[in-house]
Specification:
Its EC number is 2.7.1.73. By secondary structure, this protein is α/β, with parallel strands linked by helices. Helices cover 32% and strands 18% of the residues. The strands form three sheets. Strands 7-5-1-11-12-13-14-15-16 form a nine-stranded mixed sheet, sandwiched between helices. Strands 3-10-9-2-4 form a five-stranded mixed sheet, with helices on one face. Helix 3 packs across helix 11 (354-375), helix 9 (253-260) crosses helix 10 and helix 11 packs across helix 12 (392-407).
Amino acid sequence: MKFPGRRKLKHYFPVSQEKAILPSTEVRPNKDTYIVGLDETIVDVVANIDDAFLEKFAIKKGLSNLIDVDTAQKIYAELMKNNSISDHFAGGTIANTIHNYSVLADDKSVLLGVMSSNIALGSPEYHYVCTTSSKVDMSHLQGVSGDIGRGVTLITPDGERTFAISPGDMDELNENHIPEDIIAGSASLVTCAYPLRHEGKPIKPAMLKALQDAKKHDVPVVLTLGTQHLVEENREELLALIRDYVTVLAMNELEAQALTGHKEPLLAAKVILDDVDMVLLTNGPEGLYLCGHVENSLKRGTSNPIKSDDLADFNRWEFSRPMKRNLCKKPMKVYSHIDPYMGGPEKIKNTNGAGDGALSALLHDISANHYHKQAVPSSSKHTAPFLAYSSFAQICKYSNRVSYEILAQNAPRLSKGLPEREDSLEEAYWER
């Protein structure tokens, strides 16, 4: 694992010692530090077409069109024939998150979902595998006879974007492919609210089993809310699920408003903290908030300028480290906020995935704490049951920096870690 700080490596191979075992690509629950993500597997296809193409397949321009498997296959075959495809991206909010986590941590993660049993060269499934980090263990995916989900972005000469979405077999993940031992040994389980839409599909009870396994083994559960409309349509069910299972809730300001009724991010976070231990709330060009709990006797005051908004002096204790509320004798709520890194990129090519990038940084910090606690249990960093390695303020900095990298490119997934020139800053960050 790329654990915080510089490492001194010895570049030699002692002949008197046995040769090291080649590193395993699959996770070992008793030896590795890793996170687990459960997702609807989908590949995003970007293609340039004309209006006649839309008319041929009865696709409504400028809208999101749900299409069946046969139509999806015909559309894809036509795009391939005309050489219209410009890009393939592995998609899915959770798959994006764990890919980014593995890039940042330079370590393993596990993806739970489905994958076509027979992957043809050049197929969407082939591109899904190729554009996912080799550190992501996909050996626990469930094989299906059909296709994974396909989300096709069709761009006409006038620049209008039209979406054609085929779920395929992405919701066929069943409970038998939820490995309890893998979840039990993980630093955290991360999933999304999307499966709640699919009543009667196997993926919903599969997700619930994963949540139950995580709760049984005291593994932190991280949930992202998906979209504003999903929250509005499933609000009561979501609230019950959050109260029963969720440790960290991640969302944007619109989803937070749909969940709580509060338009103001801080007030929404304050309400949500009655049910969860931490909240990551991205607020577009206004930056992001990280909120949570700490034991009153362990709170640490900030040296940053004090901020007031809907809550007075809300960031006063942002140098505190997050804790689970039920492990605090006298829990207090802590709030931290950061503006976009360097004001944000000069030109934003694509906002897709910025929130997922921020979450991957938070997950890296949680897993770093898990790793360090196992490696150095006597460290002063573990005199209390902290949930993360760093302070609220420092995690904000890290999440913000990763979001910047996502916004500055044209894809929701990192291709490499943060620039090497920032090593000294990163070291200082982890000393908090």
